[in-house]
Design brief:
InterPro entries: 6-hairpin_glycosidase_sf, 6hp_glycosidase-like_sf, GH94_catalytic
Oligomer: single chain
Shape: globular
Protein name: Glycosyl hydrolase 94 catalytic domain-containing protein
Structural class: mainly alpha
Distance between the termini: 37 Å
Strand order of the largest sheet: 1-2-3
CATH topology: Glycosyltransferase
Order of helices and strands: HHEHHEEHEEHEEEEHHEEEEHHEHHEEH
Keywords: Glycosyltransferase, Transferase
Number of domains: 1
CATH architecture: Alpha/alpha barrel
Strand content: 5-15%
Number of helices: 13
Number of strands: 16
Helix content: 40-55%
Radius of gyration: 22 Å
Low-confidence stretches: 1-8
């Protein structure tokens, strides 16, 4: 027995030594990679330009800000960041609902039929794509990241339009649990969109709930709420912590129970509350939702073995689609014949386009869970195209053509954070 243990221990030592050598080689590669350092510099320079989502979007969006606020806190005046965060609460509705964002009045140039105004922010206009259910959770996460980066816990006690920020954050979750919640499933609902997108598949009002809307449950919205609940547990006073931890735990349990397909090792796209928008012969469950899966991993829904399996599926899907990178939003794309009018064609925009905004989040999660070599390999196409196209484009077509805003801060933010994670790991393993 002693001899067996000695031999076993020796094998473990050899394995550990080999792994350490491999880590050192990878660490050196990361630390000397000029593409990484150049993209990092480009991302930081973009953060110095302010808070607009991108060159084509002269508005401040919570879902975008959530993904670049950490890098912004390192490159921009934190007092201005604070003001921009507080501005969201001037547009919070009486029921706790949060908007997507806001714009200065002179920048309100599009034909929104339902603009929002606030007596306490008269120089701004608010707006919301009502098909989504991630505005409240995006803002909570952004506030959490700001506090974590700056140590400014005082923002939680700041009074905006007669109520503290912390109470307003609580009220925003109450809105989701009161008005966008399915008691049957213990999960929140939204209109039927492409994974994390804000365009409903039926067409119609496109970004707004209308008579065509089919309410459904998806993994993205609920994973975002699970993350927000965990964030609230860390931001809250002691007497509230157990509530937020309990909400986080229950959401994760219900996501796994109702949305995770253990046999296929993937999330199902939607659970429909009152009928599907698709014909009976269309099998939506064949579609893989890459963005929602990445966010679910961030929320702690999957085990390490499950993460490895979905990562392999994503790589296979990228190959099958001929996509430029792991930023491929979903696979296969929804065929045009099952969609409403004025909705993206297959592999266009949110219907299977390639978005660094979510591919970068998957890279972050691979690093976090120890798949660093795989993350480094998969990050290369996203990093290289930033330099090749001289910008952080919003999304890419299957032939690699860039599209949308050329200065999309969400893309820069997620890549910038991934680079920080690469560098931290490399410095710890060099």
């Amino acid at each position: 027995m002693k001899l067996s243990l000695f031999i076993f221990s020796g094998l473990m030592f050899i394995f550990s030594a080999d792994q350490s050598r491999e880590n050192k080689i990878l660490a050196e590669k990361i630390l000397t990679d000029t593409t990484i350092s150049k993209v990092d510099g480009m991302a930081r320079n973009l953060m110095k330009k302010g808070f607009y989502a991108g060159s084509g979007y002269q508005m401040v969006w919570s879902r975008d800000l959530n993904t670049f606020i950490e890098l912004s806190c390192e490159e921009y005046d934190n007092s201005v960041i604070r003001e921009n965060l507080l501005m969201f609460f001037h547009f919070q509705q009486e029921n706790g609902e949060m908007l997507d964002g806001y714009v200065r009045k002179e920048g309100f140039t599009w034909g929104d039929p339902h603009p929002y105004e606030s007596a306490t922010a008269p120089n701004h206009i608010g707006f919301k794509n009502t098909v989504e259910s991630d505005q409240e959770t995006s803002l909570i996460q952004a506030i959490y990241k700001y506090v974590d980066k700056t140590g400014d816990t005082d923002i939680l006690n700041e009074t905006v339009a007669g109520n503290t920020v912390y109470n307003r954050l609580k009220g925003s979750v109450d809105f989701l649990l009161d008005e966008r919640y399915s008691g049957k499933y213990g999960l929140i609902i939204g209109a039927t969109t492409f994974d994390w997108g804000d365009i409903q598949v039926e067409g119609g009002a496109i970004v707004d709930v209308d008579e065509l809307t089919h309410w459904s449950i998806d993994v993205y919205d609920n994973a975002m709420l699970a993350i927000a609940a965990q964030n609230m547990a860390e931001l809250s006073p002691e007497e509230d912590k157990e509530y937020w931890k309990g909400l986080n735990t229950q959401l994760i349990i219900n996501i796994r129970k109702h949305l995770w397909d253990g046999d296929s090792q993937k999330f199902i796209p939607h659970i429909y509350i009152d009928g599907s928008p698709f014909p009976d012969d269309f099998d939506e469950n064949e579609i893989h939702y890459h963005g929602g899966t990445a966010v679910a991993i961030e929320a702690g829904v999957l085990s390490r073995d499950e993460i490895a399996k979905v990562a392999q599926q994503m790589k296979k899907n990228v190959e099958l689609a001929g996509a430029p990178s792991i930023g491929l939003t979903l696979y296969p794309a929804y065929p045009s014949n099952v969609l409403g009018e004025n909705v993206s064609a297959p592999y266009e925009y949110q219907n299977g386009g390639d978005w660094t905004w979510f591919g970068g989040r998957m890279i972050q999660q691979l690093i976090k869970h120890g798949f660093v070599e795989e993350a480094y390999e998969l990050s290369q196409p996203m990093l290289e195209r930033v330099i090749e196209n001289d910008g952080f484009y919003e999304w890419y077509r299957m032939d690699g053509t860039p599209a949308g805003s050329a200065e999309f801060k969400g893309s820069a933010g997620v890549l910038g954070k991934a680079i920080q994670m690469f560098n931290q790991w490399a410095n710890e393993n060099k």
